[in-house]
Write a structure and sequence with these properties.
The chain has two domains: 110 residues, NAD(P)-binding Rossmann-like Domain (Rossmann fold), CATH 3.40.50.720; 184 residues, Dihydrodipicolinate Reductase, domain 2 (2-Layer Sandwich). Helices cover 30% and strands 27% of the residues. It contains eight helices and 14 strands. It is globular, with a radius of gyration of 21 Å. The N and C termini lie far apart (48 Å).
Length: 335
């Protein structure tokens, strides 16, 4: 079944989504929308709009929302109101209240699928980690540590992400949201939070360029997260320590390959009774050479639409929980 689809917002993410949708047999992109009319020449294979409201003049099945954080909730709600299935990029707005408003519209949209873009869950290293954790072979999770950092760049302070009215927050809500979602996905929900949310270097923006977070679950598992725009070298690492070993993810395959190779390392703990040198367990490392996360995300979305299933990754509960966590981190830091 071919679904008549429109994409609103043709920046980096809109382009990525269109490329993936064009090669998926179940989606037919019939319209795109962007504020910049000059983009129309690039998308001559479909109708082009400059006002997102006009997209709904088409007979649509699906809308992909790839816009700024301040307007994405309005578009999602309008799409649901127009009886469309909706895929929305992260973050799901700028606040918990944005997500709650979306949930109200979702509750009125009968048999419509709403999914948010947390594509990191579909990276092969993350899927391997989840499988290993769920198997129980390493025991229960004790604690976890995640670092997600980037360099900022020459245009960082002039980018829309540096405008609080548009973005709603700094590096934490922009990039750190992925790491927080993964911590929830792999470790569980956190009931206690301690944090420092700081502007350490990019002084022309009125938001954080670093967030340092400690979180604890109801079962006493502790997670540390550092989200940074002053890492200077792009870095992604996620270490999970369990009763009988550890799982370490290093690197993340992206379109620019700036986060290096993506790999996952497994090891069983070994004390003196099993190894000659304590603290040097035998490790197994797997490297991945491609990123299929966008495709796999689309496949889940399409299958849920066609088969009438509920979204497992990136549903409104995931969106609400991670935004509640972000607001708690901001509140606990006094920011």
């Amino acid at each position: 079944m071919e679904l008549r689809t429109a994409i609103i917002g043709m920046g980096k993410m809109g382009r990525i989504r269109k490329h993936e949708l064009d090669i998926h047999p179940g989606f037919k992109v019939i319209g795109v929308c962007d504020l910049y009319e000059d983009f129309s020449e690039e998308f001559s294979d479909c109708l082009f709009f400059t006002k997102w409201e006009d997209v709904f003049s088409l007979n649509l099945d699906v809308v992909f929302v790839c816009t700024y954080n301040n307007i994405s909730p309005d578009i999602v709600c309008t799409a649901l109101e127009n009886n469309c299935h909706v895929f929305c990029e992260k973050p799901p707005g700028r606040s918990v209240s944005d997500v709650n408003r979306i949930i109200q519209y979702e509750s009125k949209a009968v048999n419509k699928v709403l999914k948010f873009g947390f594509n990191h869950r579909f990276h092969y290293a993350i899927m391997e980690a989840k499988s290993a954790i769920d198997s129980g072979r390493y025991g229960k999770i004790l604690c976890a540590r995640g670092i997600y950092g980037k360099a900022g760049g020459l245009g960082f302070e002039k980018n829309w992400r540096a405008d609080k009215d548009i973005a709603g927050g700094g590096i934490l809500i922009d990039q750190g949201i992925h790491m927080l979602d993964l911590m929830r996905y792999l470790v569980g929900d956190f009931v206690e939070v301690k944090s420092f949310v700081e502007n350490l270097y990019w002084k022309k923006i009125n938001m954080e360029d670093n967030a340092f977070v400690l979180m604890k679950t109801e079962n006493g598992q502790v997670a540390m997260v550092h989200s940074s725009a002053t890492q200077w070298k792009h870095k992604f690492s996620l270490d999970i320590f369990l009763e009988n070993g550890y799982i370490c993810i290093n690197g993340l395959l992206t379109s620019t390959r700036s986060y290096g190779e993506e790999s996952i390392t497994f090891a069983q703990k070994q004390f003196e009774d099993k190894a000659q040198a304590i603290g040097r367990p035998r490790e197994e490392t797997i490297f991945f050479d491609r990123d299929d996360s966008w495709r796999l995300e689309n496949e889940e979305f399409y299958a849920c639409i066609i088969e009438g299933k509920k979204i497992h990754h990136g549903n409104t509960e995931d969106a609400l929980k991670v935004m509640e966590l972000i607001e708690k981190i901001y509140q606990k830091s006094g920011s």
